[in-house]
Write a structure and sequence with these properties.
Pfam families: Lumazine_bd_2. This is Nuclear transport factor 2 family protein. InterPro entries: FrzH/put_lumazine-bd (IPR039437), NTF2-like_dom_sf (IPR032710). It comes from Dyadobacter arcticus. The radius of gyration is 14 Å and the shape is globular. α1 runs antiparallel to α2. Helix content is 30%, strand content 46%. The chain has one domain: Nuclear Transport Factor 2, Chain: A, CATH 3.10.450.50. The chain has a six-stranded mixed β-sheet. The chain contains three helices and six strands; from the N terminus they run ααββαββββ.
Length: 125
């Protein structure tokens, strides 16, 4: 098994960039953290959500970002599990009027960690 500390720091850096890309609507930053063939799936208030990466990025591009709306940055890493070159991250992504929780699958490809799958749901009270 590779060095867990180094991989944990690298995965955390990818997640930080993911948070910043989502928060600021930075499509170029998001393209760096996602594999080009990544899928985004889940549900928003019971409605199924399934998009290829380009469709997801287009949605981010065509909305006002939480940063532009002067929202408080409250995104956080809840857990990371790494086994060799794969990882799962559970993250909390509250923004707009949503209380998103994401499960992100990552893979270390050519020495770089990238998000290969995003599962998301909005948790209501």
């Amino acid at each position: 098994m590779e060095n867990y500390t180094d991989n944990s720091a690298a995965v955390s850096a990818v997640l930080s960039n993911y948070f910043n890309g989502v928060f600021k609507g930075d499509i170029e930053l998001l393209k760096q953290v996602f594999h080009p063939q990544a899928l985004v799936a889940g549900d928003v208030n019971g409605t199924s959500y399934f998009k290829k990466l380009d469709e997801y990025l287009n949605g981010v591009k065509n909305r006002k970002s939480p940063f532009e709306l002067n929202e408080e940055f409250r995104m956080e890493i809840l857990a990371i599990e790494i086994i060799n070159s794969i990882a799962i991250a559970r993250v909390h992504v509250p923004m707009f009027d949503f209380n998103y929780y994401d499960l992100l699958s990552l893979n270390k490809i050519n020495g770089e960690w990238v998000i290969v799958n995003k599962l998301m749901t909005n948790v209501t009270a």
